Every structure is written in C-alpha cells, then in structure tokens.
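note to self: dont lose this again. the chain is below, predicted strucutre after it. 269 aa total, dont forget to put it in the shared folder this time
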Amino acid sequence: MIAVELRKLFRRPRTWVTIAMLNALPVLVAVLLAVTDLAPRPGEGPVFLSAVLTNGTLYPLAALAIVLPLFLPIAVSVVAGEAVAGEAQAGTLRYLLARPAGRTRLLVAKLVSVIAFVLVTVVVVAAVGYVTGQLLFDVQPIGGTTLSGTTITPEQIAWRTVLAIGYITVSMLGVAAFALFFSTLTDSPLAAALGALAVLIASSLLFTLDAASSFAPYLPTRYWLAFVDLFREPVLWRDVVRGIGLQAVYVVVLVSAAWANFTTKDITS
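---
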C-alpha cells in the first residue's frame, strides 16, 4: 500500500508543478542578485543572501531560507491536508477501507507518502539552489566563511548543508502532522490545509508578542530558522536540538490523535 501511495503522489503532475513553483522564487532571487545591486550588505537582510555573492556554494541554504517561512509550509499543508480528506471528497475512502489492509495501514501509507514529499521537496530546492549558485555566483575552491566570520572547508559546508536539509525536513514534518490530523477531521482538503496554516500563522504572530513569551518556546514555528546556527563557529546546537525535540513531540501527539480519530470515526464518504 505504501508503494501505491508513493506512485500516486509522484505521478500527479500537480506534485511536480508545486515543487517547480517552490523553486521559481529562489531562482528569480538569484538572478536579481546576480544582475542588480540589490544584494543586502553583510549582516543585513535575509540569512545567507549577502554571503552567496562571494560563495555560491551557500545558495542552497539561501534558497531554503527563502521558501521556509511561507511557501514550503503551504505546499506541505496542501499535500498532507489532502491525504485523507482528499479521498473522502473524491468518494474513494470507503473503497480503500473495504480492502483487508485496514485503517491503520492506510494511515501509515499516507503518512509515509507525505514524509517522502517533504524530503523530496526540500532536497530538490537545495539541489536547484546549488546549481543556481554554481552558475550565477563565484565559487570558492578553498571553502567559505561561516556566519561568525571564520573560514570553513568545502567538505564542512557540504556536511553542514546536509544537516540543514535534514533539520528543515524535520521542521516541516510538524506542519505535515497538523495537516494530517485536520485531514482526518474533515472531508475538505482545503479546510485541512487552511487549518494547519492557521495554526502556523497564529504561532508566528504570537512569537512576536511579549505577552506570549512564557510559552513562545513551545510554538511550532519557534525554531524553524535554527538551521542557521549550523553555519556558526562553533556550531550552536542548543536551538537545533530543541527544535528537533519540539517537532518530535508535535509529530507524535498529532499523528497519534489522527490515528485515534481515523480508526474510530464513521466513514460516510
């Protein structure tokens, strides 16, 4: 069943259209940086955008930082929100559950397909960012500099980039867990996606309020950008570890709630 769900997801043209649209903005930003004088000064503007002018190897991180606050969560929410609610809306959920596989196996298959989408999307954005950086910006054969101003080798940049990709993937699994949970509550994929996005928007807004400082460390978006600490010297692991732990809690709680709801609800669609 997992193989069926994966084939269904990656054979849909809209899956690849979504991934292509996610890559369009970082590519456009790279072109503008390369042909204009709009690049921020060092220490100003979005993370990595000033650094990529002297080292295009860092552009995968800049690309991920560009899509992370808004566009990547939207894509993940739409795909995860459609996992169960999309089948209900299309009237195919009852037929899927009529098979001997059962509800738990179906939900696991849906979860695995969503995880695969998140991982593939993040890797593709990073890969396109790498190619774009190589083509449009200077590449330093001796490495580059960290956000702390120290020099690191190309090998260090490579493994830190892999860690950043993994961290961002974990962060987006929290988004997927919210959308998957809402997908078991409604027959509307749009409602499930909007529910997840509403939670994330509320989290981002609360994080800016002093009145919410007491529970700010527990907001789902709190540590999304902690991957930038992987490019400091020494690496600042505190927020990275906290971010992974926080997302793990959200994923376990929300997936458990989705399973409890899905395995006990009456299927009428």
